[in-house]
Amino acid sequence: MAIRKGWTLNKDKINYQEINSLLNEFEWDMFPATYANFESVPKLPGIYIFRAIKKINSSKNELSTPVYIGISEKDVSVRYYEHRSKPWFDDGWKCFGNNFTYSAWFPDQTFIEKHDSRYDLKRELERLETILIEAFGPIVNDKVSYTSKGLKSKLKDFK
Questions:
Q1: From the CB of residue 60, how many other CB atoms can be counted at a distance below 10 Å?
Q2: pLDDT, tens digit, for every residue of 89-104?
Q3: Cα 36 from chain centre
Q4: What is residue 36's DSSP assignment?
Q5: What is the pLDDT of residues 102-122, one digit of tens each?
Q6: Cα 119 to chain center, whole Å?
Q7: Running DSSP on this structure, what letter comes out for residue 125?
Q8: DSSP secondary structure letter of residue 133
Q9: What domains, with CATH codes, occur in the chain?
Q10: Separation between Cα atoms, residue 68 and residue 46, nearest integer Å
């Protein structure tokens, strides 16, 4: 299924409490998305976001947009390596330089142990990925995760 591009304004479609929890409560690593920085990516499961940033004048304010959002239930460094061969990776680097960034969240052991199997962990990561894709409509993603929307979060109950 094709996805909408750009941030959604439909408050009924998105659970902003869960998005805020995911983005604010979890520790996200961030660095420029370069070929060389592949070595900096941990070999861990997680959620990652490539994004483009543009500073506004000389202030600390900036505009940014997610370019691609993805997951790996095993090793995000493998996915980073695979993305380096995509045309959009080169385009992002050529256009934005060090402002083409990579951010990732790696679940801690407590989060991992909440899931009975690697399959359950993958499904939860896919569910969280889908939430981010539906909220931010990254410009390169061409589909939402394979996860069905009916999965219940083990992260938090926001009802």
A1: 7
A2: 999 999 999 999 999 9
A3: 20
A4: G
A5: 999 998 888 888 888 888 988
A6: 19
A7: H
A8: H
A9: 16-136 (3.40.1440.10)
A10: 14
